[in-house]
Amino acid sequence: MEGMGRFIIRRLVGMAAVLFVISILVFLIFNVIPNSDPAQRIGGKNANPELIARINEDWGFNDPLPQQYVSTMKKVFTGDLVSYQNQRNVSDQIEKGIPVTFSLCIGAGIIWLLLGIVFGYLSAVKAGQATDRSLTILALIGISLPVFWLGLVLQYYIGNKLGLFPIGDYVKFTEDPLQWVNHLILPWFTLAVLFIGFYSRVLRSNMLDVMDEDYVRTARAKGLSERQVRLKHVLRNSLIPVITLFGLDFGAVIGGGAILTETVYNLPGVGQYAGQSVASLDLPPLIGITMFGAFFIVFFNTIVDIVYAYLDPRIRLGAQAA
Amino acid sequence: MQDGGRPKPVLSVEDLQVSFATEDGIVRAVEGVSFDLRPGEILGIVGESGCGKSVTAQTMLGLTRASNSSISGNVRFHGKELVNASDEDMQSIRGREISMVFQDPMTSLNPVYRVGDQIVEAIQAHKEIDDAAGKRRATELLASVGIPNADKRVDDYPYEFSGGMRQRAMIAMALSLEPRILIADEPTTALDVTIQAQILRLIQQLNEERGLSVILITHDLGVVAEVADRVLVMYAGQIVEEGTLDEIFYDPQHPYTWGLMGSLTRLDQPPPDRLPQIAGAPPSLLAPPKGCRFRPRCPHAFEKCPEPPDLEVRVANAAGHADRCWLDPKDKKKLREVEGRIGLEVPA
Predict the structure, then answer these.
(1) Is A89 contained in some domain?
(2) Which residues form the domain of A192?
(3) A65 inside domain
(4) Per the CB < 8 Å rule, is A313 touching B122?
(5) Residue A57: inside a domain, yes or no?
(6) How far apart are CA A204 and CA A135, in angstroms?
(7) Domain ranges of chain B
(8) Fewer CB within 10 Å, N- or C-terminus of chain A?
(9) Span B107-141, pLDDT tens digits
């Protein structure tokens, strides 16, 4: 496993490089977008040109871009980033949002991974039959439903009309665990539906391919029961791409990517903060959240690579695969 | 080998028919195949791709059972009837009493499990044995098929083995529970010639030392000549000739066999100007020709050929040598002589 150590180090170095490039890109993009004049924002609606000029001076907006970049990045790392819109500290806001986002994403993630695998497995094993056809239709519906539409519909029919679950808002786990769950059930499901549909299709497709592989035939010829063949050989090999996909998707949502779900259900997480910041074109929170999100995506990307190498031994040394 | 008073066959196939329903129609892959496998013999089944030899072999182990396959006939093993046996019965026989190794060792082992673990899995499918004991047994098995440093190799992944080593590992795995019969489906086709020789020698050794009965399927007559005791020649889903190795090579009775012999290059004869071929192509199994299936390609076809010939012994004093050809055996010696060797072309 020595190859693994070197592999991990290489990936971590790569991670740092990617984050660096992302930070530059984000910074440049926001300095190019029209209507994002920060001095205007800070000054407010009635700011006169003098005020704007003074703000530009004080805040360093007249400095050359590279200098602004460096000072912004310094603030990111020291936690001094402050919003132009409302003077609130970005790091504090993100910290407040983390438990909410984590509650939403971890719960939804577990649900979508398990159900995606179960449905995909059933679809593959009963391929062509009624079970498969119905699950396929459900999967396609799940993939096609826009999250915000589904969220609103569920809130209206299940939350409002049937009164089964609360419509939105977040209750802290430490305050009331039962209500915490109660308020998260609809959001979990809403976020998970798309992924369940997608993952079940991916797993189904992988399993159908793997079932035709020679080593599955060998397993059968050894006298293993059909169930053993399916679980130990077909599923095990088919899961590898699904697990890696999960790593990437999970990394994306936990970094504040569940913007629509959090907004629709009014969950004060990092995603909702991101949505608000985009709407007001507020650069500091956007830089902060983007770096936060990018970190998680790159981090999970790296984890996924490492897990993949663990699951598929051929990847470890690279060149020697059959 | 004398045919009088021969020992009871260890496996007996009778009128095996296998067909597959496909989008284009029903493919009759195996039509009326019957043969016996005698204890301790190496039976070679030879024929072109698509002649039904692999389907026959896989059907014996129930590996062709599917919603679109239709299987009839008898496969008798040890008093048991295998064609309609339950899945549990078949699982109990596979790997334990009848084992199979397949053509491509590169893809026949699961790439994500260690080789040793896969061998242990084969053993644990049939026997209660703890992991440590299983691993010891796997190491012994790898050593017995000639893999050096077996105690280290047992922990390797398949990609760390070469092709020849993988095939040896497959054979080791197949023999782990000391089955009575080994079916080897083109075990050397994907390997280069020197490795091929090693694998064949291994199979021969196992046959001699343990009395292992072997069905060796191949399209390569050279392989057959090397190790087989008896040979079945298959064409378009049927057996067209059956006999001992000497009978098939020195006194072949079916024009297809003449064609196969004729297309071999021989070191002991001057090279021909052009490599002889059998004209035409094997028939589609969706709609095989009526009567003798080789008729469209046979230069010696005559009026009787549209009537389907049975597989019968037509040669005097050769009780085990059967063929499926209407030609008078007395004419065959002349017909098959082409430029001083056995071949298919009509002599000038």
Answers:
(1) no
(2) 96-282
(3) no
(4) no
(5) no
(6) 10
(7) 11-234, 257-342
(8) N
(9) 999 999 999 999 999 999 999 999 999 999 999 99
A69-121 pLDDT, tens digit per residue, is 887 778 777 777 777 767 778 888 888 889 999 999 999 999 999 999 999 99
Chain A residues in contact with B104 (beta carbon < 8 A): 214
Question: Contacts by B227-230 with C-beta closer than 8 Å and gap 24+?
Answer: B227/B42, B227/B44, B227/B200, B227/B203, B228/B42, B228/B43, B228/B44, B229/B1, B229/B41, B229/B42, B229/B43, B230/B1, B230/B38, B230/B41, B230/B42, B230/B43, B230/B44, B230/B320
Give the mean pLDDT of chain A.
Answer: 84
Mutate to test the interface with A, among B94, B112, B141 (most CBs of A within 10 A): B112
Partner-chain residue, chosen from A217, A236, A322, that has the shortest CB–CB distance to B106: A322
CATH number for position A146: 1.10.3720.10
CB under 8 Å, gap of 24 or more: what pairs does A37-41 form?
Answer: A38/A84, A38/A283, A41/A84, A41/A85, A41/A280, A41/A281, A41/A282
Residue at token pair 């994907």: B190
B109 touches chain A (CB under 8 A): yes
Number of domains in chain A: 1
Residue in the block written with tokens 């496993």: A1
Contact check, Cβ <8 Å, B108/A220: no
Residues A258 and A269 sit within 8 Å (Cβ to Cβ):
yes
Q: Which two tokens stand for residue A18?
A: 């990617």
> Using CA atoms, how far apart are residues A23 and B159, in angstroms rounded to an integer?
41
Pair of tokens at residue B161: 């083995």
Decide: A110 and A116 in contact? Cβ < 8 Å: no
B160 to chain A: closest CA residue:
A320
CB of B218 within 8 A of CB of B46?
A: yes
Q: Which CATH number fits domain B11-234: 3.60.20.30, 1.20.1250.20, 3.90.950.10, 3.40.50.300?
A: 3.40.50.300
- Report the Cα A271 to chain-centroid distance in Å: 10
Is A310 among the domain residues?
no
pTM equals: 0.83
Backbone angles phi, psi at A249, to 5 degrees: -65, -40
Q: What angle in degrees, to the nearest 10, is found between the helix axes of A90-125 and A236-252? A: 160
DSSP strand pairing (B337-338 vs B341-342): antiparallel
Q: Which structure tokens are listed for B281?
A: 């192509």
Distance from C-alpha of A39 to C-alpha of A57, rounded to nearest angstrom: 10
Q: Identify the H or E element spanning B224.
A: helix B221-227
For helices A2-32 and A65-78, angle between their N-to-C axes, nearest 10 degrees: 120
